[in-house]
Amino acid sequence: MHVALLTYSSKPRGGVVHTLHLAEALARAGAEVTVFSLGRGGDDAFFRPVDDAVTVEMVPFESRVDESVGERILRSIDVLGEAFSRAGRFDIVHAQDCISANAVGRCIRTIHHLDEFTTPELAVCHERAVTEPYARI
Predict the structure, then answer these.
(1) For the whole model, what pTM was predicted?
(2) If you placed Cys at 103, which of 35, 81, 111, 122 could pair as Cys (CB 3.0 to 4.6 Å)?
């Protein structure tokens, strides 16, 4: 079984930590696991080493000083989605956050928490990532 896990950051945030632990557990259970993440600000690895049994795809995502939060959210979705679309086929796709869920389309989504956002693009991203996945954890 080939599993894709997606998250939006390489930093030690809750969803990112969960992604790495889940990826390593699935790999120990025999799954082929690939973790996709945006490499914000030049990051080319996660905040901690990841088990060699897990493939890591860190997608470059450069900073732009003149970009609004909404523009950055939409660009994050596009950049991660484009990289994921070139990666091949997966039996299971699991997203940890609204950016990754919006980037991949059909997926399972772990919902760590619900928020109310004032940035319109982020509010739409969040709503879609809760309502559109075919399964929610």
Answers:
(1) 0.94
(2) 81
List the chain residues with pLDDT less than 70. Answer: none
Residue 71 tokens read as: 């523009």
The structural domains of the chain, with segments of one domain joined by +, span 2-136
Q: In what order do the strands lie in the sheet with 32-40?
A: 54-61, 32-40, 2-7, 92-95, 108-109, 135-136
Q: What architecture is the 2-136 domain classified under in CATH?
A: 3-Layer(aba) Sandwich (3.40)
End-to-end CA gap in the chain? 20
- Predicted confidence at residue 117, as pLDDT, reads 87
3-state helix, strand, coil in the chain (%, to 5): 35, 25, 40
Q: Is 101 helix (H, G, I), strand (E, B) or coil?
A: helix
Q: What is the DSSP string of 16-61?
A: HHHHHHHHHHHHHTT-EEEEEEEEETT--S-SS---TTEEEEEEEE
| Model pLDDT, residue 38 | 97
